[in-house]
Design a protein that fits this description.
elongated, alpha+beta, disordered N terminus, 4-stranded mixed beta sheet, about 25% strand
């Protein structure tokens, strides 16, 4: 009897261990599925906005992941209102990955895209590919030549911050502008001018769009963040060539290793690039009688400061 009971007890323990193992395997598989999920950005058939469609990427190696993602972008999704991003005579010749950058080379059909088609495709590619671990920047060439915008300027490396959110928003309400943003040098003592093409909704103030780009930070390795990324723009307005900007209290935290003057004048010099602004007045949560990081009195108007710009020194 004792042997029989012992045998039954061993059987129960064995079954318990097996069940536990199966549950653990299922949990691991579920976790893997979640980690391999990615959003493919598709263009709608009216070519006015982007829509995210989640998919599961089965590949493990980076190049295989890119191949799989590109394959999705070439395939018409099941949603009838969407279309394949890369279709018709447009084709991807090749791509290379260097460090955290991917360079996509398209055939000459890319040049025949309308401005709205080109912006949407570019945004879809960048927003989709930058989700792959290890890829932070995307560049596009056409038959081996650098992509240029309508103003003849080279479109360099792009990341997700290079585009405002055009998901579910009418492209007819979008504008594109060339802007010079001022970020910090590596040592935090100088301003580095960075040219950026900005797409923004016409319902958004140009001044606000510029500061939003500053808050997002640079998209290259030569310049550095100047504004606390948690900063919110409460309000911004322009009157008599003075821009009044009201920021959340997160702005006061600044950015480590960046001089206080650099934080302030990255905003001032960026805004005064616009022809309608000559001075900037700061507010934090509606208050102006504030000292920024115990060194800069904000209760005044700030003029453009060229002395802090590296190229002008």
């Amino acid at each position: 009897m004792k042997k029989s009971r012992l045998f039954k007890l061993n059987i129960i323990m064995l079954v318990t261990v097996l069940l536990f193992g199966l549950l653990s395997c299922n949990q691991t598989e579920d976790e893997t599925v979640v980690s391999n999920e990615i959003n493919i950005y598709y263009i709608n058939r009216d070519e006015t906005f982007l829509t995210e469609v989640p998919v599961i990427i089965e590949s493990e190696e980076m190049y295989d992941k890119v191949d799989e993602v590109i394959s999705y972008m070439k395939t018409t999704p099941r949603v009838k209102t969407l279309k394949a991003d890369i279709s018709g005579e447009l084709s991807l010749n090749d791509y290379i990955i260097t460090d955290d950058q991917i360079y996509l080379d398209f055939n000459s059909t890319y040049k025949a895209l309308t401005p709205s088609q080109e912006i949407l495709l570019r945004a879809a590619l960048v927003k989709t590919l930058c989700q792959i671990e290890g890829i932070k920047y995307v560049a596009i060439t056409v038959e081996g030549e650098n992509l240029v915008n309508r103003n003849g300027l080279t479109v360099g490396l792009m990341n997700e911050s290079s585009f405002v959110d055009i998901k579910e928003s009418a492209l007819n309400g979008m504008e594109t502008m060339e802007a010079t943003l001022y970020f910090a040098s590596e040592d935090g003592h100088e301003l580095i001018p960075v040219a950026r093409e900005i797409e923004y909704n016409t319902n958004t103030q140009v001044e606000k769009a510029l500061i939003e780009e500053l808050i997002k930070g640079p998209n290259n390795h030569e310049s550095y963040q100047t504004i606390n990324p948690n900063t919110d723009i409460i309000d911004i307005s322009v009157k008599d060539q003075v821009c009044y900007i009201n920021l959340s209290s997160d702005f006061l935290d600044g950015v480590d290793k960046v001089d206080s003057n650099i934080c302030i004048y990255s905003i001032v010099d960026t805004l005064t690039e616009l022809g309608n602004i000559s001075k900037v007045q700061f507010f934090v949560e509606g208050e102006s009688k504030i000292t920024f990081r115990e060194t800069v009195n904000l209760d005044t108007t700030f003029l453009r400061n060229l002395d802090l710009i590296r190229d002008n020194q």
